[in-house]
Structure formats: structure tokens, C-alpha cells
Amino acid sequence: MKIAEARVIVTCPDRNFVTLKIVTDEGVYGVGDATLNGRELAVAAYLTEHVVPQLTGRDPARIEDIWQYLYKGAYWRRGPVTMTAIAAVDTALWDIKGKVAGLPVYQLLGGRSRDGVTVYGHANADSIESVLSEIADYVKLGYRAVRVQTGIPGLESTYGVSKDRMFYEPADAAVPTENVWSTAHYLDHVPRVFARVREEFGPTLQLLHDVHHRLTPIEAARLGKSLEPYHLTWMEDPVPAELQEGFRLIRQHTTTPIAVGEVFSSIWDCQQLITEQLIDYIRTTVVHAGGITHLRRIFDLANLYHVRSGSHGATDLSPVCMAAALHLDLSIPNFGLQEYMRHTETTDAVFPHGYRFEGGYLHPGEEPGLGIDIDEDLAARYPYRAASLPVNRLQDGTMHSW
Ligand code: CS2
Ligand code: MG
Predict the structure, then answer these.
(1) pTM score above 0.90
(2) In this protein, which residues make up the domain named Mandelate racemase/muconate lactonizing enzyme C-terminal (predicted)?
(3) In angstroms, what is the span from residue 215 Cα to ligand 2's centroid?
């Protein structure tokens, strides 16, 4: 069997997605997600111009070799654009391997380690009272883990609070929207939110909170300490993670568990965080960290150090990434949680899939391969629309992390 063709499909069914479809000379094909929010066309060009011409004629069964070829062969290693492009190829090749074997990919990865993949949903609202009713809705739907974000009194906009109740889409304008941030207002408010949530929902509902890289280590340490009475499952992205040793300071001060990794693209971005046990959950996922092949390597390293997985699953990761993540989630020994932000009906229609939600779990399904497809005719009806993530400034106008 040989790779006959690879197509890059850009579509915008309510938001932009880039998908790579690899077709073999025997007609079997596989799909991989290549979406990098706000920088979609950079990955599409990387694939079209530099990767696709090198794939034709290769044996699709040689997943590891093709991964090494694209990683080492480019000379320029790592980086989100390169690693997202490699991820797309890798994911599509696993899909093909599963279809050829007649097995769902999780079986090729060692089989089930659990019955289903526990997911967390997003409860977000302007006020504490309205977030309580959002959480109640998730509990009714069967979720056992909920991420909680609210508006901050005194600030007009806050990360994680959506305009639409069910769907969250931060990439809302071609030229980035500007948000304003105050750490003082934030640190004062968040513990009040979780005090109310625990009072209302009791001790066993798993609660999570995303700081979105907005604090310094000592500020994050204070937040973690103030949240200890409400025993969160995790405090996410407390600080920007370029400086991995910054997490040591947070760790020394608080027992609130720490999760990080959605912007990481390789094992090298989290090596110190894992081996020094500075985090509890690693949140990298298939599309941005080199595909199933590389992500499994990250999770295996994490497993040695009591770090569990908590893969990113926002709506800007396509259903193709979600399907691939679920196969890995089901098979690894150190699974923690999987984020699950529902896609819109239009997105789901473009990406018909076998995975399903039931009682707080996602199940990848039993179809050979990843159990995911792209309806190319439908995709062609939704052309790309430029959309950027917002930027963030302090009240005095200084640029801050979004
Ligand atoms: C977020 C994301 O899901 C999360 O945890 O941090 O919504 C993130 O902002 C987007 O995926 C950025 O593309
Ligand atoms: Mg996040």
C-alpha cells in the first residue's frame, strides 16, 4: 500500500478547521486535524507546500518512520506550526492503520484501560448566581466534572465567559478584540465563586478553574492557597509556562493541583514540569503535540512521575482531534480527565463521528480506525473566515497574556 494523495481541507462550519485527508492507492483513507486557532492558514500552507509533496509514494504503515522523517527531516524542530502539521499526518496514518486492521485505534494502542472517558464541561456566566444554574445543567446532563469561570466585578470582559450559553468561541474577530485585565479584582473574586459553588453542590463534584496564563508564580501560589478549602481537581495554566521552573514556587506554597500544557507542542516543553513533579495533569493533546505517536510518549513519561493526562478539548480542536484523543484516553494507564466543549450542529454535520456522550463519559465507538470522517461536499459550503483570538491589556494599557 502507498500514499496516493493528501488533501488539505480548510472549512468554517461556525469556526475554522484545517483537516488533512491522506488517501492510499487502495482507496483506504485517513483524516487528521491540523487546526491551530487564529493561525490556520500557516499550518495549511506548511502542509500543502512542504509536507504533502514528501508524502506521496510512502508506505502509510510506517507511522513512526514518517514521524521521524518529518520531525528530523525539517531540520527546524518543534514549534506549534510544525508540530500541528506532523500531528495531522500522524493522526491520519493511525486512522488508516486501524481501518486496514479492521480495529478501532484504541485496540492498536493496547486496548481499553477503562470503560469510558470522563469528561469535564464548561460552566461560565457573568455572575455567581447564573454560573450556579449552568453547573446545575451540567450535573443534570450527567457530568461529574465541571470547569467554572465567571465575570469579574469591575471588569467588562473576562476570559472563558461566552456570549452563547452552550458554545464558547473566543476567536471572534479578524483583528483581535482587546480585553482588559486586573489581577487584583480577579484574585479577590475567584475564592468567593468557589465558596458558593461548594456550598451549593457539596464536596464530590469535581471542580476545575482555568487561570489562562494570567498570573505570576507568587500570585498563582496565593490563588492556589485561597482555593484549598474548595479542593479543586485542578488550577489550570496558572502562569505562562515558558519558564518551567516557575512552577516550583507555586508548588512550594499550595496543595491545589496544577494542570498545564494546552499550548505545548512537544515533550521538551513539559520535561522539567513532569520529571520534577511540578504539575499534576498534563493537558497537551493530539493536534498540537505531534499526534498520537508523540502524545503517547508524553503520557508515558508523565506516568513515571504520577502525572495524569487532562487533554485540551476546546471547540477550536476539531472533532477529528477529539476522536483521536478519545482512543488514547481510553488506552493509557494514567488518564485523568478529558475536556469536552461541544461543537455546534453545523460542525458535527461536517465531521460525522462515532463518538458519543453518555452519563459523564465519552466513548470513541467501535468503528475501525478513529471513527471520524469529513463530509467534503458540505465542508466546501463553509469557506474560511479570518478570526483571531483576543488580546489582553492591563488597565493602564500594558499588553498582558490573554
Ligand atoms: C481554553 C481554550 O479550553 C481551554 O482550556 O484555554 O478555550 C483556549 O482558550 C482555546 O483553545 C485557544 O484556542
Ligand atoms: Mg485552558
Answers:
(1) yes
(2) 128-257
(3) 14
